[in-house]
Amino acid sequence: MQNELILKAADNVRILSAAMVQKAKSGHPGGAMGAADAITLLFAEFLRFNPDQPNWMGRDRFFMDPGHMSALLYSELALTGFMALSDLAEFRQLNSETPGHPELAVHRAIENSSGPLGLGHGMALGTAIAERFMVERFGDIVSHKTVVLISDGGIEEEIAYGVGRVAGHLQLSNFILFYDANEVQLSCKTTDVMCFDVANQYKAWGFKVLEVDGNDIDDLRQAFKTAWAETEHPVIIIGHTIMAKGAIAEDGTSYEGQVSTHGQPLNAAGASTEATIARLGGNPQDPFQIFPEVKKAFAVRLDELRAEAKKWETKKAAWDKENAELSSLLNSWLSGQGPRLNLSDLPIKEGVATRVSSGSVLAHLADNYKNVICSSADLSNSDNTQAFLDRTGIFRPKDFKGAFIQVGVAELTMGAIACGIALHGGLYPICATFFVFSDFMKPVIRMAALMGLPVKYVFTHDSFRVGEDGPTHQPIEHETQIRLLEGLTKANGKPEMLVLRPADAYETLVAWEMAFENTDSPTALILTRQNVDVLPSDGASHYARATKAKQGAYIVSDNTKLGSKPDLILVANGSDVYLNHKAAEILRTEGLSVRTVSMISPKLFLMQPESYRNQVIEPWRPVMALSSGLPLLFQAVVGGMGKTIGLERFGASAPAPVLEKEFGYVPEAVAEKARAYLAEYKQACRDFLKTNT
User: Fold this and answer.
1) What predicted TM-score, i.e. pTM, was given to this entire model?
2) pLDDT tens across 264-319, in order?
3) Within 13 Å of residue 499, how many CA atoms lie on the same side as its CB?
4) What one-character-per-residue DSSP string does 477-497 give?
5) What pLDDT shows up at residue 453?
């Protein structure tokens, strides 16, 4: 397009952005107005997409990091036909297509949910890695660029370090950052919070750095051309832009570059939305319009893109014919039908840590499912993802023959990369670390759940039994914390996340099957460091017994006579199930009927039919649940007169057996707690009858 048309279109974007925020009475106009020139040029001349097929395989991916600049994205999507002007007029309103921060909607050409700064370009990095992985296997037919808008706030977030380091190390020349360097933040100027040399920082990471006037079309065009042509390094374009470009007050006073324009309507910032719209050539009384010349120019651009997509389809058809086997494989990967595991015959060792059992599954995945990518935060030889790595190789600079990402000690970056791999399509990411370090990943785990991404998280070293490493490495509150996401429910009734803590080697196999059956939300597997014995199976195969875990909980052992009711029901998950079983054996010698229940997921159990739940945990019977962490973990399943026990303190540094004795996690101590609870229960029943008869 001619520069004049690009500038006219950019002004159109500024008008729409300012009007959207003003009508909604909330939002962020300043950044959107400042970056409009660059992003409009990007959509007008560089990004490859199909206007009629938003999910087209050959499209470039545009990611947003600063989700608060959503008005900019929505305005660009209106110019390109993916959104209607009526959608823009409903900005930030209930059930609109234009929420305050963008939410994943590929059918609207929105590639990621964004809002928490830094995470967007971490996800974009994952998609760029996925693209290189695909190109390695299928060739340039699947190649594309991944372009991401970042901001001052995004590069201040710690994840920016991880993204820069990994992208530079892997020499991802398909990865392009546009840094909207307007030097204005929500509450201050950037000079109040940073003085480091951004350009040299990215050069040190191995980026090609281009520094331009972010509001000069010729400078921007040359920078994008250079970025598109780059074959050796990732690229960052540092665009020095003007916050709230074009904003004026009623009297014509410029409000460009003002902090006040960042996070509120221009009228609230001291400027005038109406005067600004008029100055930019719009109609303040009816601002939701696209200039006729802009509409015409983008119509031409869209026809060019359709022709380009058609040309690609012709090329793809020829490639399909010449590469029939590869084409079939590619189609199967992109079908959305991921691996479906049946691990009934997988050879495994018994009496080992569940992380070791998980390693057997990971080796199986590496051998048999070539669209699985695994990563670890420098713990592969401890979280047992090494079993996957041993059958493949790590990604190296410009070498993506393997299927393992060594991200270094960077859990948050790893989690964001995993999201980006899932967003790309066709690939299934697994990432692993110690459970206590899931704290570093919490923001991106939440985003994975929000976007419904089937990322698999492997969390090992699951309790105070980590032992000598001490309380810094011993997760106590973590299972309860991560299960809060499991407590959120999708519109279809499913939980927003599946969290599984298997009790033995065979439940670990089943947990992995469940993880890959779960295709629309993330799954976390919580695994032990220490060895765990295999649970009893009452004549059935251990695997067959463990498959009952798919209902969330099942009966492991029970000496209750037919037609009678148990005197006590003991509930636990993970390594605590076998502990409960051993405590039950003590109580059984005392004449008690005791049922032990393995509850791999309380939420999943509570979703089962009432008839099944009542079979496992009979109503109006004493129920005591044991957790290695906070007692409230099982509060929802024990009932009003049930008892939950757990650890209500941080751990300590000592060998695991010492801590088990110290904290009361040995069969004798659990049995004693059960006796005390039964006495309390009986007294509570007597008190109830006394006051209600």
Assistant:
1) 0.96
2) 999 999 999 999 999 999 999 999 999 999 999 999 999 999 999 999 999 999 99
3) 26
4) SHHHHHHHHHTSB-TTS-BSS
5) 98
The answer to whether 148 and 155 have CB atoms below 8 angstroms apart is no
- What is the spatial distance between Cα 183 and Cα 660, in angstroms, rounded to a whole number? 54
Cα gap 42→212, rounded to integer Å = 15
What stretch(es) of the chain map to CATH 3.40.50.970? 3-306, 354-526
Parallel, antiparallel or unpaired: strands 404-406 and 372-376: parallel
Give the pair of three-digit tokens for residue 188.
């201050």
Residue 588 in tokens: 């059984």
Single-letter amino acid code for the residue at 238: I
Please state the CATH superfamily assignment of the domain spanning residues 3-306 in this structure: Thiamin diphosphate (ThDP)-binding fold, Pyr/PP domains (3.40.50.970)
- The residue assigned the tokens 């598109």 is 228
Distance of alpha carbon 250 from alpha carbon 241, whole angstroms: 23
310: three-class secondary structure by DSSP: helix
Q: Residue 268, exposed/middle/buried by CB under 10 A (0-12, 13-18, 19+)?
A: middle
Cα→Cα distances 194→157, 183, 287, 365, 373, Å: 12, 10, 37, 45, 36
Span 164-220, pLDDT tens digits: 999 999 999 999 999 999 998 888 888 888 888 999 999 999 999 999 999 999 999
Q: Tell me how far apart the alpha carbons of residues 237 and 330 are, in angstroms, rounded to a whole number.
A: 33
**Which one from 111, 131, 256, 411 is the annotated catalytic residue?**
411
pLDDT score recorded for residue 606: 96
Question: Maximum distance among all alpha carbons in the chain?
Answer: 90
Residue 254: partners with Cβ closer than 8 Å, 6 or more residues away: 247, 248
Q: Given a cut of 80, is residue 693 above it in pLDDT?
A: no
DSSP letter, residue 361: H
Sheet with strand 498-500: strands edge to edge: 404-406, 372-376, 428-434, 456-460, 523-526, 498-500
Q: How many of the other CB atoms lie within 10 Å of CB of 329?
A: 15
Between 411-424 and 119-138, two packed helices, what is the crossing angle to 10 degrees?
50
Distance in angstroms (rounded) separating the CA atoms of residues 100 and 87: 12
229-256 confidence digits (pLDDT tens): 999 999 999 999 999 999 999 999 999 9
The CATH number assigned to the domain with range 548-691 reads 3.40.50.920
Instruction: Say which residue the tokens 């990611």 belong to.
Output: 63
Of 57, 575, 21, which is closest to residue 247 (Cα–Cα)?
21
97: annotated active-site residue = no
Tokens 């054996």 belong to which residue? 585
- Domain 354-526 in CATH 3.40.50.300: no
Please give the full DSSP string across 672-693, using - where no structure is assigned: HHHHHHHHHHHHHHHHHHHH--
* CATH 3.40.50.920 boundaries in the chain: 548-691
In the block, which residue shows the tokens 């109406």? 274
Closest by CA to 599, choosing from 612, 587, 588, 586, is 612
